[in-house]
């Protein structure tokens, strides 16, 4: 069972290869093998959402997946939301609305919100609350986080920019 496995995938638009143990989680692969430490580990049990990344466009818990399961897949981490360095509109709104305190939950909130706004570009406040209900913020910064996500949707619907570096 401990035989190493060769995997190949896209991470933040780049081709990545690795040789991993079958038991290595995707979160540990991203953090320890690729040095993408923006993906945070809180509970490591699928509860807190801090480890959320995009897998083929959908938000998933990186602590609940094995790296071998994403062989051939397309993964985007929080670092990949703004590949050119400039903040996306969503990130800028998190800053503007003071939606981060310690910031530990922020990567998971951003990746969750990013995927959610693609699926639901015109959300109600209730829908935003529901969308982030699987992400825990220990600083209880939920109201500003909801405000930031709603402000992003409203600006986009008013014809605002999608944000620099926004992945397709
Ligand atoms: S670390 Fe993955 S859900 Fe908490
Ligand atoms: S800002 Fe601290 S956990 Fe959310």
Describe this structure in words.
- Its cofactor is [2Fe-2S] cluster.
- This protein has 5 helices and 5 strands.
- It is an alpha+beta fold.
- Strands 2-1-5-3-4 form a 5-stranded mixed β-sheet, with helices on both faces.
- Helix 2 (89-96) packs across helix 5 (142-157).
Overview features:
168 residues, alpha+beta, five-stranded mixed β-sheet, 5 helices, globular, disordered C terminus, binds FE2/S2 (inorganic) cluster
Secondary structure category: alpha+beta
- Counted by DSSP, the helix tally is 5
Tell me how many strands there are.
5
- What is the strand content? 5-15%
Mean pLDDT: 94
- The geometry reads as globular
> What is the distance, rounded to the nearest whole angstrom, between the alpha carbons of the first and last residues?
38 Å
Short description:
By secondary structure, this protein is of the alpha+beta class. The protein is built from 5 helices and 5 strands.
Chart the SSEs and their pairings:
Blueprint: E1 5-11, E2 14-20, H1 26-33, E3 52-55, E4 58-61, E5 74-76, H2 89-96, H3 106-119, H4 125-131, H5 142-157
Parallel strand pairs: 1-5
Antiparallel strand pairs: 1-2, 3-4, 3-5
Helix pairs in contact: 2-5
The chain binds FE2/S2 (inorganic) cluster (2 copies).
